[in-house]
Design brief:
Blueprint (H helix, E strand, L loop, with lengths): L3 E8 L5 E8 L9 E9 L2 H7 L11 E2 L3 E9 L9 E5 L14 E4 L5 E2 L6 H23 L9 E3 L5 H12 L4 E5 L5 H7 L3 E4 L1 H4 L10 E6 L3 H9 L1 E9 L13 H5 L3 E4 L7 H14 L2 H6 L1 E5 L3 H8 L7 E5 L2
Parallel strand pairs: 9-10, 9-12, 10-11, 12-13, 13-14, 15-16
Antiparallel strand pairs: 1-2, 1-4, 3-5, 3-7, 3-16, 5-6, 6-8
Helix pairs in contact: 1-10, 2-3, 2-8
Length: 329
């Protein structure tokens, strides 16, 4: 049986995690009814955590890393897919409890897969990846809360990162006045090119603040958490909402109830990993129609499979702008 390349996480008897390249066979793959030849993956913040070798994200070992992939179905026992179908997968426990996308092949449940939407190829699907798909889920949550551009500006924190870059682009195209918060002011021109109308420094939000601040925005997409999220909530207009989808600053929420009971502000949690399939399909269809692929290209770099470990280390330090596509081969 032929072998193929995978990026494998292992744990020794002392509990130390190790990361290395492995040659595996289809017989080594986990259970599933669809086998996919993986052509592309990507690097998200969560991938950086996994490849740090110190996170609690992987819950089984050995584990193939990579929370996303796109590729072509090789074999299928699932009624919804056949050999040759172009597919993508985000989340569903990849790199946590099920072998992930940093491998030349994957075997998964067909119920987890999505056929590539019309107009999006495998490269663009991974340029979007979990980060962009999460940004779209956040925008959908704000819309379903009843918010619209005429209600006021929309804040995007961590704006130069993956989630932030796509969120800025989507919100701007939908007519929002976007306020982009970033710790990298040298990226101001980049954020403006994506559609940001204002740029503010990260430090305006990242330190402990007052329970309630001046009302500055009606909506927001936050991928940072901690004090940043608390301050974003505290400066949200009455009956506005913040979609919470990340923890780059921390998992803590050192705030209070004042914005919720005095202004009716809503905190909207975004779960991209186990998101129900109907909402996934809605998000990907909206990405196919609402995301400017030229702007997506402008925020995306492509790297070789061999460079994943080095690139993943950068994302935890805020060293990656926009999106990265991994060419698996």
């Amino acid at each position: 049986m032929s072998t193929f390349k995978a990026l494998m996480l292992t744990k020794d008897d002392a509990g130390t995690q190790h990361i290395g390249w492995a040659q595996v066979t289809e017989a080594d793959l986990m259970e599933g009814d669809v086998t996919v030849r993986v052509t592309h993956s990507t690097i998200n913040y969560k991938d950086g955590l996994v490849l740090s070798g110190k996170s609690a994200v992987p819950r089984k070992f050995p584990m193939i890393a990579g929370i996303d992939f796109a590729g072509v179905v090789e074999t299928s026992a699932h009624a919804g897919f056949k050999a040759g179908d172009a597919v993508l997968l985000n989340g569903y426990g990849l790199a946590e409890t099920h072998f992930g996308g940093y491998a030349e092949k994957a075997r998964v449940k067909g119920d987890w897969l999505i056929k590539l939407p019309k107009g999006i190829d495998a490269h663009h699907a991974m340029a979007i990846g979990t980060a962009g798909y999460t940004a779209m889920l956040s925008v959908l949550a704000l819309e379903k809360h009843g918010l619209k551009p005429s209600d006021g500006p929309a804040l995007v924190t961590g704006a130069a990162g993956g989630v932030g870059s796509v969120a800025v682009t989507l919100l701007a195209k939908l007519g929002w006045h976007v306020i982009a918060s970033t710790g990298r002011l040298e990226e101001a021109d980049y954020l403006t090119s994506l559609g940001a109308a204002e740029i503010i420094e990260r430090k305006e939000l990242s330190e402990p603040g007052r329970p309630l601040g001046k009302e500055r925005w009606a909506a927001g997409v936050d991928s940072v958490g901690s004090h940043t999220l608390v301050n974003a909530i505290g400066m949200t207009k009455a009956h506005g909402a913040i979609a919470c989808c990340g923890l780059a600053q921390g998992m803590d929420l050192p705030g209070n109830v004042a914005p919720f009971i005095l202004r009716g502000v809503a905190l909207l949690g975004i779960d991209s990993v186990m998101c129900p399939m109907p909402l996934r399909l809605e998000a990907w269809q909206r990405l196919a129609t609402d995301l400017d692929l030229k702007k997506l290209d402008s925020m995306t770099r492509t790297i070789a499979f061999a460079d994943v470990i080095d690139e993943a280390a950068k994302i935890l330090k805020g060293g990656i702008r926009g999106r990265v596509v991994v060419n698996i081969g």
